């Protein structure tokens, strides 16, 4: 049994990648995984075959991320 509670807040602390991925399972229509592996190399995988769709999703999320700073 775990005593860890997921809170719906923005944190400045890093979160374990496995925890983030587990939370996303079965919630998404399409998904991209972007990261850096243990060797320091970039990693990318997507469930969408179309690069344009991937880029559009990235830009939309980028805009949301940039707006977070504007709220403070």
What are the SSEs and their pairings?
Layout (H helix, E strand, L loop, with lengths): L16 H8 L7 E5 L5 E5 L4 H21 L1
Task: Describe this entry's structure for a reader.
The structure is a single chain. The chain is 40% helix and 14% strand. It has a two-stranded antiparallel ribbon. The chain has helices spanning 17-24, 51-71; strands spanning 32-36, 42-46. It has one domain (17-71). Strand 1 (32-36) and strand 2 form a beta hairpin. It contains two helices and two strands. 0% of the residues are buried. The chain is of the alpha+beta class and 72 residues long.
What are the secondary-structure elements, in order, as H or E?
A: HEEH
Could you estimate the helical fraction of the residues in percent? 40-55%
Biggest β-sheet: strands ordered side by side in the sheet: 1-2
The main pleated sheet reads as: 2 strands, antiparallel
Count of the domains:
1
Secondary structure tally, helices? 2
* Rg calculated over all Cα atoms: 15 Å
Notable traits:
about 70 residues; alpha+beta; 2 strands; globular
What is this structure, in a nutshell?
The protein is an alpha+beta fold and 72 residues long.
């Amino acid at each position: 049994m775990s005593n860890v509670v997921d809170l719906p807040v923005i944190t400045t602390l890093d979160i374990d990648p496995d925890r983030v991925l587990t939370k996303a399972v079965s919630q998404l229509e399409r998904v991209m995984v972007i990261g850096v592996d243990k060797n320091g190399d970039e990693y990318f995988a997507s469930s969408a075959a179309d690069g344009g769709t991937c880029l559009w999703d990235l830009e939309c999320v980028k805009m949301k991320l940039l707006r977070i700073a504007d709220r403070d």
